[in-house]
Amino acid sequence: MATTPLAHSPQPDHPVYVIGGGPGGLAVAAALRARGVRAVVLEKSDAVGASWRTHYDRLRLHTTRRLSALPGLKIPRSFGRWVARADVVRYLEKYAEKHELEIVTGVEVFRVERSGADWVLHATGGRRLVGSAVVVATGFNHTPRLPEWPGRDTYEGELSHARSYRNPEPYAGKDVLVVGIGNTGAEIAADLADGGAKRVRLAVRTVPHIVKRTTAGWPAQRTGILVRRLPGALVDRMGAAMARVGTPDLSAHGLPRPDTGLATRMREGAVPVQDVGLIAAVRAGKVEIVGAVEAFEGGEVVLADGTRITPDAVIAATGYRRALEPLVGHLDVLDGRGRPVVRGARCPREAPGLYFSGFTNPISGMLRELAIDAEKIARRIARSGARGRTGRGRAGRGRRT
Fold first, then answer.
1. What is the spatial distance between Cα 279 and Cα 285, in angstroms, rounded to a whole number?
2. Cβ-based neighbours of 328, under 8 Å, separated by 6 or more
3. How many Cβ atoms are within 10 Å of 286's Cβ, its own excluded?
4. φ, ψ of residue 329 in degrees (nearest 5)
5. Residue 342 contacts by C-beta under 8 Å, 6 or more apart in sequence?
6. What is the DSSP letter of 87?
7. What is the pTM of this model?
8. Most distant CA pair in the chain: distance in Å?
9. Strands 313-316 vs 158-161: parallel, antiparallel or unpaired
10. Short-list 136, 115, 132, CA closest to 389
11. Cα 146 from Cα 271, distance rounded (Å)
12. Are 237 and 230 in contact (CB under 8 A)?
């Protein structure tokens, strides 16, 4: 991996700029480099894989090792079938080194603009960078989202977003309310229950689909790959049948089966929850299901059924925003939810040369889809005759700082 100082003036042959040094950005840069196109990765933190470095300790990939590798480097077998967070970071570091990627850390891009046939990036320190194409890979989970609950700002208790959660040690002996039953909320609740919290409650607004990570050795991810192209109505019926066979009915514990199908829920943006301990914790009474949070009043949390509780700590696993508006919102390339209108090798109609990777959360596995998109984007850019070619199919190493 080479870290290169950025020039303040345009270069004769402009590179492709990749914004974001996570899995998506690294994969695109490697795929471009393999095709002889110079790619410069711009990462605002001081290292690649920044978001993976800050996730909670217990986290493991919900997708298998074999189906999660990026182009050009397998994940080591020694990492196991379900790769741990720390090993994902190690893999990304090795990936950048193996492909000798040109990465500039400590540089944040604030705005991207079209300038004739080129793209201009406005970045840290007043830099004005000119590229032949731009790939935005700043991540699906970019900016923590905390709902505007009434009374939130004057709440007298401890309230934090799941982004800051690392392990259950600080919560030993405490009464904790986890808000949100996505994969993060479900796993944090189970982690707290196993890690010594006195009481763990999980606030649920919409009942999720819960699937086992594997069934008789068959990973849920492979099922997701197989059904992804099937009609939604068929997937809804298949999902309901599989749930009846594969997962217990938790209605008596406050988690009835969902009243909308799996594919229908996916279209609404909700992925199924992979069970990595939640079902057992709920059935054992270690995690209590409660209603959604409606408001905060003083030191109390008001739930949807009117119940008032006073937990020692509230952890909001309430998701993230893509936060793309300052960067590209002025280009009319985002939909009503702030997500790119197209992804992969397709460019928005009014923005040729602008690509997006990593802004969906597919049932077939995010890292798998990032790898596929990286190859597609690189082929498209190479065919378009991007400038900044290296001439030998490999990008030259940058100067270390």
1. 10
2. 112, 136, 334, 351, 354
3. 18
4. -60, -30
5. 333, 348, 356
6. H
7. 0.89
8. 68
9. parallel
10. 132
11. 19
12. no
Q: What is the pLDDT of residue 1?
A: 54
Could you give the C-alpha distances from 26 to 20, 104, 242, in angstroms and in order? 8, 12, 36
Count, residues in the chain: 401
Q: What is the mean pLDDT of the chain?
A: 91
Is residue 248 within 8 Å of 256, Cβ to Cβ?
no
Q: Which two tokens stand for residue 208?
A: 């999720």
Q: What is the pLDDT of residues 110-119, one digit of tens each?
A: 999 999 999 9
Q: Per the structure block, which two tokens stand in for 56? A: 């909670």
Q: Can you tell me the distance from the alpha carbon of 183 to that of 361, in angstroms, rounded to the nearest whole number?
A: 12
For the chain, the distance separating the N- and C-terminal CA atoms, rounded to the nearest angstrom, is 12
Which residue type, as a one-letter code, is found at position 94? K
Of 199, 200, 210, 297, which is closest to residue 246 (Cα–Cα)? 210
One DSSP character per residue, 220-287 reads HHHHHHHHTTS-HHHHHHHHHHHHHHHS--BGGGTBPPPSS-HHHHHHTT-PPEEESSHHHHHHTTSE
Cβ 364 vs Cβ 228: under 8 Å: yes
Helix, strand, coil % in the chain, rounded to nearest 5: 30, 25, 45
For 103-115, give one letter per residue: b (16+ CB within 10 A) or e.
Answer: bbbebbbeebeee
Q: Contact, 174 vs 197, CB < 8 A?
A: yes
The answer to whether residue 391 scores a pLDDT higher than 90 is: no
Q: What SS3 state is found at 153? A: helix
Is the pLDDT assigned to residue 6 strictly greater than 70?
no
Each residue's pLDDT tens digit, 274-318: 999 999 999 999 999 999 999 999 999 999 999 999 999 999 999
| pLDDT band at 396; cut points 50, 70, 90 | very low
